[in-house]
User: Fold these one by one.
Assistant:
Number 1:
Amino acid sequence: MARKISMKMAINEAIDQEMTRDPTVIMMGEDIVGGAGGEGEKDAWGGVLGVTKGLYAKHPDKLLDTPLSESAYIGAAIGAAASGMRPIAELMFIDFMGVCFDQIFNQAAKFRYMFGGKAETPVVIRAMVGAGFRAAAQHSQMLTPIFTHIPGLKVVCPSTPYDTKGLLIQSIRDNDPVIFCEHKNLYGFEGDVPEKSYTVPLGEANVPREGKDVTIVAYGLMAHRALEAADLLAKDGIEAEVIDLRTLSPLDMDTVLESVEKTGRLVCVDEANPRCNIATDVSAQVAMNAFGALKAQIEMVAPPHVPVPFSPVLEDLYIPSGAQIADAARRTLAKGKT
Amino acid sequence: MARKISMKMAINEAIDQEMTRDPTVIMMGEDIVGGAGGEGEKDAWGGVLGVTKGLYAKHPDKLLDTPLSESAYIGAAIGAAASGMRPIAELMFIDFMGVCFDQIFNQAAKFRYMFGGKAETPVVIRAMVGAGFRAAAQHSQMLTPIFTHIPGLKVVCPSTPYDTKGLLIQSIRDNDPVIFCEHKNLYGFEGDVPEKSYTVPLGEANVPREGKDVTIVAYGLMAHRALEAADLLAKDGIEAEVIDLRTLSPLDMDTVLESVEKTGRLVCVDEANPRCNIATDVSAQVAMNAFGALKAQIEMVAPPHVPVPFSPVLEDLYIPSGAQIADAARRTLAKGKT
Amino acid sequence: MPDNNPFPLPKDELLDAYRRMRTIREFEERLHVDFARGDIPGFVHLYAGEEAAAVGIMKHLWDGDHIASTHRGHGHCIAKGVDVVAMMKEIYGKKGGACEGKGGSMHIADLSKGMMGANGILGAGAPLVCGAALAAKYRAKQKGGPSDVAISFVGDGASNQGTFLESLNLAAVWNLPAIFVVENNGYAESTARDYGTAVDSYVDRAAGFGLPGITVDGTDFFAVYEAAGEVIRRAREGGGPSLLECKMVRFHGHFEGDAQTYRAKGELEDIRANRDCLQRFTQAILGAKAVSEAELQAIDRDVLGLIERAVAEAKAAPPPDAADLTTDVYVRY
Amino acid sequence: MPDNNPFPLPKDELLDAYRRMRTIREFEERLHVDFARGDIPGFVHLYAGEEAAAVGIMKHLWDGDHIASTHRGHGHCIAKGVDVVAMMKEIYGKKGGACEGKGGSMHIADLSKGMMGANGILGAGAPLVCGAALAAKYRAKQKGGPSDVAISFVGDGASNQGTFLESLNLAAVWNLPAIFVVENNGYAESTARDYGTAVDSYVDRAAGFGLPGITVDGTDFFAVYEAAGEVIRRAREGGGPSLLECKMVRFHGHFEGDAQTYRAKGELEDIRANRDCLQRFTQAILGAKAVSEAELQAIDRDVLGLIERAVAEAKAAPPPDAADLTTDVYVRY
Ligand SMILES: Cc1ncc(C[n+]2csc(CCOP(=O)(O)OP(=O)(O)O)c2C)c(N)n1
Ligand SMILES: Cc1ncc(C[n+]2csc(CCOP(=O)(O)OP(=O)(O)O)c2C)c(N)n1
Ligand SMILES: [Mg+2]
Ligand SMILES: [Mg+2]
């Protein structure tokens, strides 16, 4: 497992391998090939940040550039999924969900239930999430809580290249609609990734760091910030356990509850805005199901209830930092039973 | 205050009075007048359930029927709000938000922040919410958590005709975008409503029933179920305090925290699906900010993580009942410190 | 009478078309009565008066073809071969319904028949049909021969939804075997078509997206049948998408319970008397002596029997079990 | 030279048009350089090469008129009179920026100038413009006289968004004083217009929604000016909405950093040499001796000075305060 590749390449490789394996895997999106209809280079872009670059050469019939019509082509991916294909649709930025949300939450998510269990909709919707790109209010949101709220959807948000490849392959093979959230500020992040195909199951959290004093729950970019916080806390002799949720729906509460039973302290971190987010969701479930184990208040760390600002200084303040997370841990450690 | 009218009439009256008072108040929506372009009765519908019936006769220039194009006309209401009007847009069922959400969450909600505080968007988007109408998965959702998650939006969901009138008038006068959620199963619910114009402030919960043993937090139809639960509990000598949030953003956490300080027990009820909903939001905030006051686990009551089923027997099981809420209260009362 | 058939369908097909139209009509008229009696929960939108469109089109389809329907979906379902008893059970919210009682009138589907669902969201079927058509195109490429097609039904009102409009362009860009049928019954809820749609001709609307368009009298089964045949043939042969407008009439209110005061005086009586597609069809085939009255009467008896049985079975069927509330959300979770 | 003016604008207006176009050009070319140097954060989409459209249209507008722009918004802002220094500060994310540094390039707005914002969401401006036009219609009804208008800009790619398409119909149904300008620069990101849009003619697209449409050479200032004058006049007089297509060219990549390998060989050189709207305009007004070289050079000096000052002030300006992070979300909360 010595090969290190970026998260971007991990995505590319996952799609490549699944397209090779399964003739029903196709992909559609805006400029995912690039150069269509023009006189210059074909496969000119591979998506706005080059994630799918090179796939067209290998699978010329399976990547479809689309008009700028998310409702139509995301819906088409869903319709194709309901009629035998296994499409991956790229919603360039998750922020664009507002023009096509109906197809996702009222159609894909509900077919199976509304049709009495007689439909399968194996579609994957890949989208960039998250702040830090200086891309401002309409290109920087997480929005994971909105999808997580909807029954019938699965929601994935990995933090490492290894998990990304394994979870994406799993998502493509999964028979339910999956919203696959890729943090754009992790695209360049490198890590060990086996060349061969493998899967990481949905609904299993990862514990990248064990500790006995406090549990920090996070996902996506925040998993890295949580690890930074754990490093900071370690300097004070505090052993933080970091849980990377990896998938938000299904959610691996068992791992969280077990950890809280051990540590008695919980910090939930989310890059999504604070109201009704993943942090409140996990916190509330712990307050309901492991109350007895809690030694002190639960702490939550999230951006403020504001849109993502453009100015780099403000955006950096907006995104929860390792220091903020460590402070939150210290706050809960300072209180309550020992 | 002896006059009793339905919630439906309370809405009608609020719009009527504000249109009379303020020339910039206009309203648009599908069939909100009805009969447009036809040869029969004008003002034939007054909306799909007759809520705006009769307003056209009084304000013929101010009610605009629209094509079946929510993006365009909800967006138009927002654009008109940003240029001097005070529009009310009717999104018939909140379930239709998926075809027009961008205009709400990326435009209306973010203008003020993105434009550095230099915009005001005084738009009210009225929509029917909630289950119990046998209207199935695409016409029965709450979706309040999705709007509450978004910074820049205000979210209101009243439970009584009195609050409805006062909150709607306040929402129309408010200078921020307001999502005004009307529970369709409360339209016929009657209560005392003054004829004269009055406002109920946003961000203030109501406490329809005081009690010292357990706090039950709810809103909309669930406020009524919570009161039913309180009745049931009273038979066992348990005094439940019921908090009707009334507005979800801004949220009156002070009232909730104060109550929990007193009772030490919390049940949060939501008709929205369980993941990342209002119940998790309030619960998490309590677990963070009033942990010391909690004597036992927080209980949440919500429908299961499933779409709204059509079959009446299933739909009735889907919607949380007074008995379920009372059971939840008993569960938390059975545990922990006394 | 085998020689007396001036129509583009042989006798047994004419009788089959009659059977389907009659079935839709009786199904809907029966629902109208039973809804008024309070037997049926929820919103019900009836297709009565519009049968010629559904059947005239669906007569060209096979099971591998897909359709996506609207809130007014019963007619499309029946015409596409969805089981009538299962439909009735569904509308009653019962076990054994087409969707096990979980969907109801607005969500009847049967993917085994290529029926992708009635839809509570206006315009939502159009993107789905692009996807079904894309899948069909991939299948055709693999297996050769004429392609399966996919057909989106949309009302005149819903034809102003962005989802629908985007789909016209996408279908043209991808050259999909897709057909967009605008069922123009003159109203969207209580609002006249002409108020909400700025263009008179759907052929112009289609042309704005590079699609060929045809307008036909949707109360004339044969006109629909012929036009549908043409656009479906083109789509099967790789000639791409089309738009087909059927001008038609709605016999009942927007939904059951609608007092229809927005209609002109005498309008309903007039359309029942002069624009009844089933009556037109019956008169045509009887007039040409392509079929006999006795043959039609036999079908009528069958149909009434079927509807009667469907209602009886629907009423007798048990409701879903409490445990069904939480099943069928995911394939696996 | 007051007599040498064959143009529809008097000399001072020609010079003003020149100044606006030149300002946009220099603003954008400067950003191109400074972005490459790493001075500027985020996504930047440049309007260079497209100036004649923004200015040819905006010359007809007053402050009460509204426009809604796109991700490629700098040109619209400058043409509509938004302060150039405040714009530059905004692009640098600084205090005193048009949006106090909170919006950035993709969200510059100035409602006091009727500029409703650049927009990061394709097609999103069109519904907003319907609303501004509706408000204008109410104002006109009250005060009489010609109506304010509202103009939505949309790229060729974004003209396939449902929001945009729905708005065409809504504007026609409500007979709004709205104009929809399709800025057809031949590309949507890296994809050629002809791939993503199934119809060749935007006049046909407009006709599909009952709107009059005009196509003009968007690199010809006077062609734009004249056509815009016509559709704006009609809208002001209650004659309803129109669509105006400007065929134009994009001098830079989709956004800064785009290598543009999708272009034909020599394409960029060719359009710079032969389709430069500013060069065309300059040659026309100089050729007719309507203005003098010295007059233009004086403006050039002014403009370069302004841009220089804008950059200097933007660099020198302090960033927002930490406390600004949480202000300006609501008017009151
Ligand atoms: C997105 C959306 N908006 C509004 C509605 C409410 N609605 C249901 S049917 C209908 C009218 C549809 O008219 P038309 O498309 O002409 O179909 P018809 O009912 O005439 O068959 C409306 C407005 C909806 N279901 N979905
Ligand atoms: C709803 C939405 N989808 C996709 C994008 C990403 N995007 C930004 S600009 C662009 C291309 C726009 O092309 P066009 O409309 O022709 O405008 P141009 O850039 O050529 O001025 C795309 C796809 C977006 N911002 N919003
Ligand atoms: Mg209709
Ligand atoms: Mg373009």
Note: Chain D touches chain A through 49 residues (CB under 8 Å).
Number 2:
Amino acid sequence: MNKVVKNADDAIQGIRDGMTIMLGGFGLCGIPENSISSIVKAGIKDLTCISNNAGVDDFGIGLMLQSKLVRKMISSYVGENAEFERQLLSGELEVELLPQGTLAERCRAAGAGIPAFYTPAGFGTEIAEGKETREFGEKQFIMEKAFESDFAIVKAWKGDTDGNLIYKATARNFNPMMAMAGKITIAEVEELVEPGELDPNFIHTPSIFVNRIFQGTDYEKRIEQRTIRQN
Amino acid sequence: MNKVVKNADDAIQGIRDGMTIMLGGFGLCGIPENSISSIVKAGIKDLTCISNNAGVDDFGIGLMLQSKLVRKMISSYVGENAEFERQLLSGELEVELLPQGTLAERCRAAGAGIPAFYTPAGFGTEIAEGKETREFGEKQFIMEKAFESDFAIVKAWKGDTDGNLIYKATARNFNPMMAMAGKITIAEVEELVEPGELDPNFIHTPSIFVNRIFQGTDYEKRIEQRTIRQN
Amino acid sequence: MLTKEQIAQRIAQELQDGYYVNLGIGIPTLVANYVPAGINVTLQSENGLLGMGPFPTESEIDADLINAGKQTVTTLSGSVFFDSATSFAMIRSGRVDLTVLGAMEVNDKGDIANWKIPGKMVKGMGGAMDLVASAQNIIVAMQHTNRSGASKLLSKLTLPVTGLGCVKKIVTNLCVIDVTPRGFELKELAPGISIDDVHNATEGNLLAEGEIPEIQF
Amino acid sequence: MLTKEQIAQRIAQELQDGYYVNLGIGIPTLVANYVPAGINVTLQSENGLLGMGPFPTESEIDADLINAGKQTVTTLSGSVFFDSATSFAMIRSGRVDLTVLGAMEVNDKGDIANWKIPGKMVKGMGGAMDLVASAQNIIVAMQHTNRSGASKLLSKLTLPVTGLGCVKKIVTNLCVIDVTPRGFELKELAPGISIDDVHNATEGNLLAEGEIPEIQF
């Protein structure tokens, strides 16, 4: 069984119009750049995207929005994107906003075979509307369910051909939980190595969660807020 | 704020008769040997211990059982211990058995601020008795709650003085979740280093979960099943 | 009649390339010795190891590296360690392709009992309840009858249940049986065993339709 | 009247040695510049960093190392990276000792609104709802009134709520207020500000008992 595919075009085979996909990343940090390009190129549409953010106008999921491929975004924060706002106001795009921790935990639950859990986040707010609430130990909680998705697409720093992954710094973010959660998980990595080259004690995503892996190319790694100090 | 304490005797200060404590380890692998010795020496009794196993007669939690310090064990597997069996049959000791994954997840839930979750493990069995059950997507689940504990005691390979921990090989097991779960978390480590010496990208337990840390001594690391092959 | 090793060998024929497999203690452990040529499987040990290797040599022994049976083991290229919560995340989310377990009893609905005998010291279920509640593909490896000769393939369990409707296939010293909505379906016979032998040793509802081939190795 | 920097400076006086602190965007971010001497705090950034350092120099910039405001940052000795689930595990389990947030409105029960203005484009709550639902110790840093001069300290929120009964202390350009079961309790006044000034700028129930000292820096 070979999990290695040649490139993003091969990796996204089977993603079809109308599917639900998870995309790792926080802002533009740790996003699966190659796979997004291939989805745009393939024109796969009516997608529901679970991703903490929606990119910027000309990068990240913003590229999918430009091509009108996204029917619904499930995110915690969707600023910095004019085309997003236009599609939302015109009714072309649907948005479901969730607390960031709830978004992360619903991914993790999916990857852990936990169908539902309770969280305090959003109790008493409109996020709780239509959801069950319940008291434990005199505190109020909302019941949240595991996400269901067809594909999860994550970006890692290094991976081996068995599918073990490590991430770099804060580019880790949602990627490990989404890797666990996909019915089929696609991983793109900056560097693909042979099994045994990654220390088994320091792997972030065990191979069992990854179905397809490839070494990406031409990572742009755009920076949203380039803040510097004078030395 | 200095989290570093001199030794296990200092680390276990505040653990009192009747408390609930979590102890990391799987079998005799990755158990907090030093802290167990100090608890035995201090004679802290009527303890409820949450730990996957109960040690062997003369090592691990078995030492606490010998001294009759344990009122109740919450575990998934308690074989290999004659004194345990004697106390159980005589009614001196109470045991609550839980599926291993449920045990792990109830620790993790406690450390994640999740008061309850649903798992399929044990549905239809006596483990489900007295627990709520519920159907999600045509499958049946049990509601399990986060553990409540006063102290968690874990054993790590290396730690820094800020409280960051890394574990070695399968000595990791329950330790990371228990480190998250304790109201107060005590970590004993084989090697205590300065902050910055552990790679920030490869830390298993972030410092925020650890309240007290010390470098242990004289680790015996007893092996339960010494299985070898001829080379 | 099959030996324990032959039961393991027959189960190994069910392995497919790329499978992640969890093997229980006892006969299931032996399955690892019979992985067919050209097939690559990865063993999951629920205490926190994926890619379990053979027992260590004397010089390789590491007290920090054990399997779920608390035996010293080794790693392989591509092995990975993780915590117990992640381990059972893999199991509950159905990422383990095949689970092989021993059993005290199985009934013709696929319910399994393998953790407790009332009146005897109960050691606990370990990871068995998580495994049987989650795995899509569970094969039971066991003797067809217990030490007193009573059938372990029943219409109704007499022992406390470990999990409901989860067993898909049973390989015993006598035969290979699929558990289907119709009950125990006899699929293959051990050398020298007749359909009648299996009928006599099976208390639950047994279907033996058409030609039943002999187990091939 | 306090400047934004002074609001941050006053909040920094609440820091205690060993605190783990989450600072929101805007004035809260400035708190990091005023950590008192002898006090060691660790900044948590909910995108996956504990021990956030200052902005990088030009040569230190790393696109893979940002904070929750998507700004490039650095690490310190003892820093640690983790995934988003672990980050919010810390937050929900109450391990973050102090959370400083901006707000659009706070009421005298400690409810906070800071994520949505009906009719305007909604960007989302990010981690704010998790933080306010979980933290034991939340301080709001904000201007006392909005741009049109209306009070942001209300008896009843007019905007969609972010979290209930969570705000413990408010530091504005005018004063320091504790939110207690009795309502807004005036604790300290900015230089040049009178109790009447605060009363006039506060729509919610304000208690000013005894001598109210001036904020000291």
Note: Helices of chain B lie at 8-11, 33-42, 61-66, 82-90, 100-112, 175-181.
Number 3:
Amino acid sequence: MALDKNGIAKRIAKELKDGWYVNLGIGIPTLVANYVQDDIKVEFQSENGILGMGPFPLEGEEDADLINAGKQTITSLPGSSFFDSSMSFAMIRSKKIQLTVLGAMEVSDQGDIANWKIPGKMVKGMGGAMDLVASAENIIVAMQHTNRKGDSKLLEKCTLPITGLNCVKKIVTDLAVLEVHSELGFVLRERAPGVSVEEIVSKTIGKLFVPDNVPEMSI
Amino acid sequence: MALDKNGIAKRIAKELKDGWYVNLGIGIPTLVANYVQDDIKVEFQSENGILGMGPFPLEGEEDADLINAGKQTITSLPGSSFFDSSMSFAMIRSKKIQLTVLGAMEVSDQGDIANWKIPGKMVKGMGGAMDLVASAENIIVAMQHTNRKGDSKLLEKCTLPITGLNCVKKIVTDLAVLEVHSELGFVLRERAPGVSVEEIVSKTIGKLFVPDNVPEMSI
Amino acid sequence: MISKVIHNLDEALDGLEDNMTVMFGGFGLCGIPENSIAAIRKKGTKNLTCISNNAGIDGFGLGLLLENHQIKKMISSYVGENDEFERQMLSGELEVELIPQGTLAERCRAAGSGIPAFFTPAGHGTEVAKDKEVRVFNGKPHILEHAFNASFAFVKAWKGDETGNLIFKGTARNFNPSMAMAGKITVAEVEELLPAGSLEPNAIHIPGVFIHRIFKGSVFEKRIEQRTVSKHN
Amino acid sequence: MISKVIHNLDEALDGLEDNMTVMFGGFGLCGIPENSIAAIRKKGTKNLTCISNNAGIDGFGLGLLLENHQIKKMISSYVGENDEFERQMLSGELEVELIPQGTLAERCRAAGSGIPAFFTPAGHGTEVAKDKEVRVFNGKPHILEHAFNASFAFVKAWKGDETGNLIFKGTARNFNPSMAMAGKITVAEVEELLPAGSLEPNAIHIPGVFIHRIFKGSVFEKRIEQRTVSKHN
């Protein structure tokens, strides 16, 4: 059965390692914070200027001066720090953030990502996504395997305007976990529970390498 | 009579304007702080990371964590701020400091300055001088008119390694106040009390323009 | 003696003219210079090019200047959440230049640091890199980006003193410090305006040297764009 | 769980090897990482390229590494006040590269900001510009300068917490923040080491993300280079 959003977030949370600094994009990536394992400590960075981001505040304790990059009210945890935007992207560009999780409209089998603009639709902008994908050494994309029309979002080449080239390392969709390899393209590493390799193959347009053994995810 | 060091500093202090931020180099320039007029307020910047530098501390109140760019113990005044070196030179390069006063070994009639290196002698380095002269829009050089051998320090072309090109606007020596103009070269504006135009002419090698009227300095 | 402290908003905007390029601090509605924006609306300055990470919402923030047709061009990283913005952009009334957020911040910081240009990897291979110089450093392509050039910067701080020193609070800091450094004239509005010497010199985020005018804002509405809360147990 | 707090100096220097490029915070003797320098002297690592604004004095600061012949090259803006330095330099034992102070700071900040290169006016027309690209911006020539690349940065802060957040005091801040950002491994020694949550999040100068190892220095001698005083009335 295909994973729901929380399932995708849960699977990604298993990638987190003790001591990592992590930037979570808007949407499914934000949910990852809810599933951090108890035996590790990670610090969440939000690019508008906080390290050590905590959960949403209790009702009545919202502070207009304390939001995340999605403009949601948040809290700060002990050990947190605030800083300005140039410092925030300084740490992003200098690769101090060990993991970036973000959504995508399309990913290519070369690791290109398109997630900011649909021609003909109102363009809202790239926000910090282009900076993040250009610098992060470890990018996981969280997305549905197909779009609303049922077309694959895993392509040979992105058709939408590019956010960054050759940057995505791993993709977790509702159907599968895939890695991006420069020679092999998408490498199918795990299937969602009950999802067949055939279904994944049929819903993937980009070059896909299927190893002999593709285990089901454990979540 | 030629000015002594304090006389040069006093004359330069008259250039200060209310509200200015000022960077004073090591040596004679440091003395300028002692002669700020009572009816204006200026803030002194030291490029190692302070705005609002005050006088030397009282004996016994020295703080090893509070020094100026000359490595002397100092104090801070109300309204002062501390910052790091990159911020310090950010404000210097972005021209937030209205006046820079520094010493020189040689100045050319094009406003070039040499003050950091004598070939054959132990080179200590340029410190912040190259950054200051490259960015400051208002540079006053405080120096003796001639060197120890009696040779002019106001030249057609600097013979020593350059610190910066076309940057000096005004020179206050023990003998004179001179401005640097792109066409006219050094323009003699004031004489030290009792010093003749002839003496200044004889001790100036670079192109010198002498206006009809060259008043004595009032200090 | 000269004072940076101003007592009415006309003084704050002295010299602000049609067609100027102006920076506004803030991220979303967080840390925006509300009082200056209101004053610019009242003054009616037109054809502004605004450098601001976002463009406000309908009826608040830069939305107030948009609906009054005072903005010719927005230079931002993200501009959603604003119907009037969308209408003006689609109709061609409003020009929009989108810039990666980190590049936007760094171009402000560069302007305030006397760095005319720098290389960044952000945007390489995208339409942002169009007509820009590309150079490879450490095996990776980077693009050359230039410092902004803004006649005014309007910023909002938490505490300020008479000499212009500023301290920001929480994530309301965001673009305010870099823009404060970048303005040819920087106007700071603060929640608390204190005598010189009231702020801990080690705790100051932006030294007063960058600030030309400072005033205590009369109103800070501080609207929240996305009120998200956790449940009480 | 992983902790950044280390309890002996061997751990602080783990991975430091001969021939590495290493940054040291401080200006003169102010804000130098005394404890790390002492540990490096004890460890005896050789042929270091040291990026530091100054080179210490005889018997203190980097002078301790110089007299032990551990430094191959100094990259500094000013290197006076040190007889042993002068002797080694004149004899050719020690290589010296002199860099304008602001460029030195900005090349550190660039390294810690993922900016591989930037243009600055400092040094144009001087021997510092030799073999460097020159480009005119706003009618003024600038030279292209590159980010440093340092395996280690040793910095000294006033207060720090277990997550690596740092606060500096007075002018002991100087090069420490930019270098803290720049090191591939950054080791911070602090006067006070506090539990996470002890520092005001608005007052932190360098967020812990940049710091890999932190320890409470056992001794801070804090020598004064030029003791200048005013007379009591």
Note: The longest strand of chain B covers residues 75-82.
